[in-house]
Amino acid sequence: MARVRILVTGGTFDKEYDELTGRLFFRDTHLQEMLRRGRARLDLTVETVMMVDSLELDEGGRATIVARSREAAERAIVITHGTDTMCDTAAALARASLGDKTIVLTGAMVPYAFGSSDGLFNLGSALSFVQVLPPGVYIAMNGRHFLWNAVRKNRETGTFEAVQG
Amino acid sequence: MARVRILVTGGTFDKEYDELTGRLFFRDTHLQEMLRRGRARLDLTVETVMMVDSLELDEGGRATIVARSREAAERAIVITHGTDTMCDTAAALARASLGDKTIVLTGAMVPYAFGSSDGLFNLGSALSFVQVLPPGVYIAMNGRHFLWNAVRKNRETGTFEAVQG
Amino acid sequence: MARVRILVTGGTFDKEYDELTGRLFFRDTHLQEMLRRGRARLDLTVETVMMVDSLELDEGGRATIVARSREAAERAIVITHGTDTMCDTAAALARASLGDKTIVLTGAMVPYAFGSSDGLFNLGSALSFVQVLPPGVYIAMNGRHFLWNAVRKNRETGTFEAVQG
Amino acid sequence: MARVRILVTGGTFDKEYDELTGRLFFRDTHLQEMLRRGRARLDLTVETVMMVDSLELDEGGRATIVARSREAAERAIVITHGTDTMCDTAAALARASLGDKTIVLTGAMVPYAFGSSDGLFNLGSALSFVQVLPPGVYIAMNGRHFLWNAVRKNRETGTFEAVQG
Description:
Largest sheet of chain A: 6 strands, mixed
Oligomer: homotetramer
Low-confidence stretches of chain A: none
Strand order of the largest sheet of chain A: 4-1-5-6-7-8
Shape of chain A: globular
Mean pLDDT of chain A: 96
C-alpha cells in the first residue's frame, strides 16, 4: 500500500463560513473527513503545516513548506494549497532539489465545506497522480497534472493550463 | 490534453431515490454534473452504455461493455460500474485483449445523488490513473489502483484489496 | 419559550443508505442534527418511540404512539412519521381524545441524510404550527397544515391534499 | 390553499461564493429551488425586491420594502432579509400601518448555497407562521416567532431573543 504524506497549508480547500461575521476563515482542516468520504485506504499521514490564504504566504512560509517536504520520510507527498500562488510554491519546491520525491500540489476553487466544491475530486486526483508519477514537482488540478514549470493559473477562467516549460 | 472516453454502465454511482416508491432506481447518469463540479478540463467523451445494477449484469451485458471498449477510438477509457461485479467485468476486458488501451474501472459505495458519496473522489482518481498507467485493465477504488487480476472486493468492509495475481 | 416534545417514529425522515447491502435502513434519528442546523431555540425534548417504516406500523405500534402522546407532559407535540400511514396514526390520536394537546405529525419524502430532502423544511413548518394552532391533531406537509380528518396523501404526486372532513 | 407573497430582499439567505474572487456575492435568489425542495404546495408568488446585504440597506431601500408590502394583494407576506437589520425593517413595516396583513420576516445565518444552511428550516417556519398568526409584523427565526417590537438579534450567539416590547 502506497505511503503518502499530506501536508496541509490551508487555501480555499479548508475555508469555512463564519456565521457571526459573514466572513470566510480557517478552523481545522477537512482532510480527514474528506479521506473518510473517499474511503481512502492508503498508508496516509496528514500534517497541518499552516492554515493560510495563499495570497498571504510569504517567502518564510514557503521555506517552511519546503523544509517539511524535505524532512518527510515519505517519497510521495501531496500538498493542499491555495490556488493563487500554488505555482510559486511549486517552483520553490522544485528549486530546493528534494531528490527522488514525487510532490503533487492541489487545491480547490470552492471550499469543501460548501456544497459544490471540487475539493474531493482534486484530492482523489492528486493522491492518484502521486502514486504513479516519477519524482518531480507537479500541480494536479482540473483532472490534469502539470510539471511545476509548465503551468499557470488562468485568473479569468479559474482553471490551470499548460504553458511552455 | 488527454483524450479520455467514459463508459457509463450504472452502478451505485448513478442510483437515485424514488420518492414515490421509496426505492432506488436509475434515471440519467450524473457524470456530466460530476465533471462540472470537478472542473475537469480534459478532452472527454461520456457514453452511456447501460444503466444497471452490476448484480444484474450478465455475460451479454459484459460483452457489450467489451465491444464498446474495443470500438472506442480513445486509448484511455474509464468505466463507471457497480462494485459488486466490477472484478468480473475487468476480467472480461482483460481476456478480450484490447491492445494498447488503458482501461480503469471505478464505482461508488454511496450514490452520488446522496450527500456523502465517495463518487467524486473515485472519479478524480480514475481519471488521473487512466492518464498515466501503462496499457492494461485496472480497478481504481479507495484511492488505489489494482491490476484486474490482483484485486477483490471485500464484502464485509466494502473496500477493495490486493490479492495474489 | 415554547415547550415542545418531538416523538420520533422513523419514516423516510430517518432512513439511511447501507453501503454494504445497498438497502435503506434505520440507525439513529437525525432530529438532533436537524435541530442544530435549524438553530432551533425552543424548549425541546426529543424522544425516540420507535424506528420503523410506517407501512410496517401495526395497531400495537400505533397504540404505543398514542400512549406516549398521552403521557407527555408537554401540550405541544410534534411526531415524525412515515408518510404512507401518517393519516391513520393521526386518526388514532384524534380518537384517543388527548384533551388540550396540539399534536402535529410531519415526515419527509426524501431521507434527510440524502442531499435533497424536504425534511428540514417540514420540521421547521411542524415546529411552527404546533406553537400556534389550537388543540387538535394535524398533519403538516408541503408547507400546509391539515386537520387529521380533512387530508389524504395523494400517492401519484407524493403530496398531501385537502379532502372533505 | 393559502395565498402568500414572498418578497426577496437578499441577505445571507441568497449569498453565493464567487470562486474567481473568493468573495460572497448575490446572483439570483434560491427561493424557487428551496420551495421545490420543500415540496411547498401553497398559492405562492415570489417577487425579488432587491438583492442586498442588510447592512447596506438604507431608509430608501426600507421604504421600497414597505411600499411593496403595501401594494401586495396578498394578506400573508413573507420577507427574506439579512439578519443584521431585520428588526429595523420590521419596525419600519409596523410603523407603516399596513392594516390587516400578516407579515413575517425571516433569514438565514448561513447561505442556502452552502451545505449547512438553516435557510430551509426558517423558510418552512416563516411560511407556516404567516398562515396562522393574526395581522401584525413578526420575525421568524430559530423556530420561534416574535412580534416586531419584542425581539433583538444577539450578535454574540447569532440567535434572536425576546426583549420587553
